[in-house]
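User: Run a structure prediction on this.
Assistant: Running it now.
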Amino acid sequence: MSSSSLSTKDLAKAALERSRRWLQGAQRALEDKRWDDVVYASQMAVEQCSKAVLIAFGIDYPKEHDVSPVFRKLAEKKLPQWFLSMLEELSENISELAKLRGLAGYGFEVGVGAEYFRDYAPEALSKASKQVDACAKLLKELFGV
């Protein structure tokens, strides 16, 4: 099925479901002590759930990993106060993890191994979990997704 045949709501739901699978992968990677994979999968979870929200609102976003500038524009929408109070933190999560994604995925090219991310991996997972939960709650409240 092509994305053009999906409604905005269905596409947002699919992106949210994908983010949950990335989050599950990050959790398993943490259990396995695959620190770089935790960071990579956490970034993907954050990216996908954030894009799910943008999709639901019909907001175009760049085809890149850091969509924080566009995500911040959600402040212009009528949103619940609880989400607005988190918007800057959530936007920073997108940006921070996007910056680390390349190193987590391709650090071997510059001599960076999985251990490099050992201390940061639990924080990355925590940020991703918070992001997915917030985006899922918003999508459910506003769009029934």
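The first helix runs from residue 8 to 31.
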